[in-house]
Batch of 4 targets.
Target 1
Amino acid sequence: TELVEFMRRNPDVGAAGPRIVLERDPEVDQVRELRGVSEPRRRLALTGAAVMTSRAALTATGLLDENFFLYWEETDWWQRMRLTSFDVAYVPTKGKVIHSVGATAKRMSGICAFFMVRNEFLYRRRYDPPIRGLLRALGDALYSIPATHSNFRARVRGIAHGISIWIRNPPVQY
C-alpha cells in the first residue's frame, strides 16, 4: 500500500523500491546508505529484488533487457528510466522484503561470474564514453579476479566475451 500511494503521489517516479533486509540479519537494511532512512529518497539505482513500476514508465522504457541475463539488468532499466525522464525512488516501508543475497550465485557460481563480468561490458558499452567505459569494465573485471580465484576461468571468459561485444556492436542509443 505504501508503494502504491507513493507512486500515485509522484507520477514522475517510474520505479519505487521498498525496504529490503538481509536474510541473515532481518534487522539490517541491505543497502548501507539507506540504513535508518525514514523518508522516501530519489536514487540512481534500486535493489532489483523487489520493485514497483508505473505503467507510464514501462510504456516509455520497455521491460528488462534480456541481453542482461542475471546481472546488470535492473541497472540498465534504471538508466533507461532516467533517460526517459523518470526517477527511481526508495520508499522506507513499514513492511520489509527479506532478500537471500547470493542464493542464485551459490548454485551457479561459474555462470554468475561470467555474466557479472560480461554484462558490465555490455552496460558500459551502452552508456559510457567509449574509452572510459572499456577501461572501467576491464579494470573492474581484472580487480575482481584476485579476490575470487574460484571462477577464474569464467571471469576470463566474461572478459573475452565482453570485449568481443564491445568490438562487434555499436553502442545502443536511447
Target 2
Amino acid sequence: KSEWPTSKWLIARFNRKNPFGLLLTIGLALSLEFFSNFLRILLNVESHGPITAIDTRGVNLMPSIRTPLQTTIFRSVTFTANTQTIVFFVLLTAIILWRKRQHALALLFVAVLIAEEGCANALKHLVRRVRPASSFSDYNATGFSFPIGHVLHATVLFGLLTSLLFLGHNTSTL
C-alpha cells in the first residue's frame, strides 16, 4: 500500500462499498460532463452561434406541423415542469422527509430549489436572450428564454428524486 495521500484518496474513489466511493465518483464525472455541455451551449447562444438557428427553424416550422394532440401533450409536459408544480413537489418531498426525520435531506431539497431558481434567473439576465416569436402563442411567457426554466426545474427535481430513491434503496435509513 502506498503512503501518498493522493493514492489513498484515489483508492477510496473506486471503493464500491464506500457510499462516497465509486458511485459518487461516477455521479461527479457525469455532472461535470453535463455542466461542460451546458457551458458549450451557453457560449454558443451568447455568441449567436449556429445553435440559435433552431429558433428560426422552429418558428417557421411549428404552424405547419403542430396538431391539437401535440399541443395538448406539450401543455401537459409544460405544466409538469412549471415553477408552481416544481415548488409543490419539492415542498411535498420536504414535508415527507421532515416527517421521516430526514431533516438534512428535506432542507437540501428546499435549498437546491432556491439555488436553481436563483442561478436560472441570474443566467437569464446575464444572457438576455429574447423569446422566439408568435408561432408559440399557446405558451404565454414573459422574460428571457435562456436557460429554459422548465428544463432546469425538471432536471434538478427529478435528479434529486432519483438520488433519493437510489439512496433509499441502498440504505435502511430511508
Target 3
Amino acid sequence: SVPASHSSRSPSLRNSSQSPPGDALTVPLRRSPVKLPPATVAILRMPLGVSLLATLLSALSYTGFPGQAYQVGLAILLMPLAVWLTFPIIAGVVLPIYRGLSLSSVYEYLEYRFDSRVRVVASLLFIAWRMLWLGGVIFAPCKLLLIATGWNIPDWPLLVTLGIVTTIYTFLGG
C-alpha cells in the first residue's frame, strides 16, 4: 500500500475538477498546478515542412549563395537537388526504423545501437558545430553591413549588438 503523503503527489494527466474538457492539461508540480497545452492538435505537413526549412535558412544562405553561384555557376544547384533526392530515402528507410524502434531522434538511436557515451559525443559535436555555424551566421551580415555602409569601426560592437538583439528577439518568441 502507498502512504497517503505519496498518493497526493502522484501526477495525473488531467485534473478534471479544475479544468473543463478541451482546456489545458493540469499536471501538479511541487503542489502548484502547471498548465500545459494539449498535444492533440494535428499539425499540417506543409506548414511544418516550411517551418523546418526556414530554420535552415540564415544570413549565410542569403549572402553566400549568390556569390557562390557566381563563382561555380549552375553547380550550386547540386546541393538543393541532393537534399530533395535524399528525402524519399529518409522517409522510406530511416523514419520507419525510428518508428519501429519507438525512437524520436538519431541520438536515441546512437544510444540504443552503441552506448550512451556515443550519444553524448554526438550531441557535443552537434552543439559545437552549431555554435561555430552561429558565429558565421552573426559575423556574415555584420561584415556585409560594415562593407556596404563604409563604416570604419571594429567588428565587435556590431557583433555584440546583433547578438543581443537577436537573443532578445528569440527569447520573446520571434
Target 4
Amino acid sequence: GGSFTFYGGNSTEADGGDITWRAGDSDDAVGGHVEISAGKSVDSAAGHVTIEAGDSTVGTGGHITMTAGDSVNSTGGGFTLTLGDSVEDAAGAVAITAGSSTDSTGGGFTLTAGDSNDSTGGSFTLVAGDSVKDDGGSFTFYGGNSTEADGGDITWRAGDSDDAVGGHVEISAG
C-alpha cells in the first residue's frame, strides 16, 4: 500500500527541523490520543515501529523521553510494554542495553519505583515465566567484568525505617 514519510528539514549550521505530533486537550472529557501502529500481515512479517534519536559527532546524542501523564485527583498515567505472544515459536523478548563508551563511563540503566508521602511507595516486581512442560524461566544477574580494575558489584539492599521495621531481603529456592 501507499506510504507516508515525515521529514523535519535539515540544516548545516543551525538546528534541524522538528516533527511534533500532539493530540488535542479537553476540559470536560477525555483528551485526544496519539496512536502509532505498524501494519499486520498474514503471510509475511508484520511491519515495525522504530523510534530512534539522532546521533552526534561533537555534541550529545539525542534523547528519547516517554512520560505518562500526572493526575491530581485520580491515578497517574501508566506505561505498559507488552511483547507479542506466539503459539508455535518463541514469544517476543525485551532487550534494554545501555550504551558503551571507549574513553568514559558506560551508560547506566535505572528503574525506580515511585515515592509516596501518605501511602505505600511503589513496588518493583520482576517475574520469570512459568512453564507447564519445560523449565521455568530464570533470572541471572552479572556484575561487569574488568581487565585492569575492580569487577562490578551486585548490591541488594532493603529499605530503612525510622518508626517501623526495616525492609527484608529474602532469597528462596524452589
